[in-house]
Amino acid sequence: MRGKKLLGSFVLLVIIYNSMLVSGCIKNSNINSTTPTDTTISGLIATISNLTVLSSAVNAVDLDTLLSKPGPYTYFVATDAAYSGFGISSTTLTSLPDTQLRKILLYGLIPGKHLSTQFTIANNIPVQTYLGDSVFITSTGSSFFVNGFQLASYDFAATNGILDGVSAPLIPPSGNLLHTIQADTAFSYFAAAIARASTGTVNIDTLLSGSGIYTVFLATNSAFQTAGFTTLSVINNSNPDSLARIMEYNILPKRVFTSDFASGQTLTTLLTGNTIVGQQINGLQYEVEGHNSSASITSPNIMAYNGVIHVTNHILLP
Length: 318
Fold this sequence. Notes:
By secondary structure, the protein is α+β, with helices and mostly antiparallel strands. The chain contains 13 helices and 14 strands. It is elongated and about 65 Å long.
């Protein structure tokens, strides 16, 4: 795994996103359909054959008791294949401290019984979770997404609610955008560029740590090197306002998940008068195109308290 775990084991699962090429939907992420309907959510998780990673984690922190209560609840869960696709195993989860594991598992638990047909047809409707965080639900009427990831199967009835299968594990935010970027040394060049740019006329540092909502296309260290920023020293000696233009070109002034992408969709960047184009390619992969460069999204929909991050393999240049 790349990166230094600066925030402890809770950031482990966020860093996993940054080390994988993700297509946006994991094969075999459907919940097995031969399930009983006369049991609780806890009972369903224990019974369904491809929810063993989730089941072991739920049992490790005694959440089976909560998930057996009357509720009702709607629970967005990932299958074994979805966890495996992100490099997450039962051992990965159960090695985390109990309080952190509980926070991860409860991020997908929503008070109330919400059938897919009851979701508002709209993009990114915030819904409060059991612990008070938010997930963002998009419905087209026939397809459904949570935090940008598609529901692969849905509306499995339990006596105390609903179970929905998501095509990727839902990982709660661990900090603001700046905090999340700084947490992994795989993005130390981007973090250095933010710091250097913020010494000029545009304070990117304050912007990404404030209350405004943004989307960041987060280029890796190797992407910066390919673009000519070969060392941190080069970044630290660059013109701050020139760096700020690059940073602004890789930031959108709102929350945009990959589920919001349409082929050829124009996205307005933070850099005044400049746009990029986001599109879905090869079915489930995504890329963004700028004036003079393009980038593939290698790790999508990483949550922060004030927005979302998409890891890219190139830096977009205005």
